[in-house]
Amino acid sequence: MGEAVAHPPDLSPRLDPRRGTLTIPISTTVEALQSNEVYLPRMRQSLDPVLSARQINAIRHHQQDTRLMPSPIEQHISLVNKLESLIGAIKFSSEINLRLERIELLLDVLGNPQRSYRTIHVGGTSGKGSTSTYISNMLIADGYKVGMFLSPYLQVLNEMFIVNGEPAKTHDLLEIYDEIESFFSKVEKLGFGKPSYFEAKFAMAMLLFARNNVDVAVIEVGLGGTLDATNIIESDIAVLVSVGLDHTEILGDTVEKIALDKVGIIKSTSTVVSGFIQESTKSIALEKATKVGANLYQIGQDFSYETYGNTIRIKTLTGFEVAVDSINQPSFAHNLSCAVMAYILFREKLDSTPCADSIRNAIASFQLAGRFEQVQITPTVILDGAHNGDKIKSLMASIALRTENLILIVATKLGRDLN
For the whole model, what pTM was predicted? Predict the structure, then answer.
């Protein structure tokens, strides 16, 4: 008899119609997941004690293969633990981490790596991740080497640190963290305290991009704008995708208060793209841009878009026009139009011509986990991280276009207003 053939275990979800329960089998040990073949369905699990197959594969894929260093999972867990040790009992306050002096000093002792490349700063309540990814993809299609800093991450830390469309290797991130950590005591001794969790990650990204000699970095705002750690940069382009009610306990309880915080990323060095649609917030963006002497391009005035089914046509007052297909979500048309305008203005700053084919290539190569992401075909399973009113409205508009009978499963963290 020949050798027995090893078959993957049956790990498909099992529905019990009598009980109305859905059972999703998972492995119970990290060791079982470290084998060459991982059969688990793509699912999210915590790092402790079990990593999902998707996390394992993502971590493993971006490592240097050597037996002389800790395993990829050990490296990732070590890095996450080091960063999370910086999280204090109070997450947000102007005295602790909503200030710029500390990150300014940290980057200064690191040699100000953020000044070695051009920057595009992307802020707003919703749509920052997709807009940043569209811009990055367009510039990569044009031949630029592009760094991209996104926050927060969905599954593995590497997702925050992107170079030319690829997450950074954990080994490289761990080395950079250890390097910047050696300067924490210097910052602390000058009376600013240790850098925060987010500040450390942002500094890591700035140094990573400099080491990789990127031409431009697309940087997503973490929270708000004015006092966010990313606001230390002097951006070439500042993008304000949208404004809505989120993080109201920190930023304010009206869209106007939130807009006032978000327009803080507008600087005299910036050309500004605004996707704000409320008249009150449009006025706030205009007032800030006028005050600092920045050129402002507003949606509905300087650029616009129209949708026809899955096709979007984007036009600018300067005569540029492009039509693209395969929009994943109706709301992404708004985000894409902001990204296209930012791309056009950036190319013009470099005295070069924007390319419609680069925009189309950006759409074709667009992938963003957790944004109306289809992770299974039969049956259809779609994951979306909508977590505020505007995002939920966008999600429901996309769901309305589906023809299947859908079951909606919603999970929220404690403290969210479900009304």
Answer: 0.78
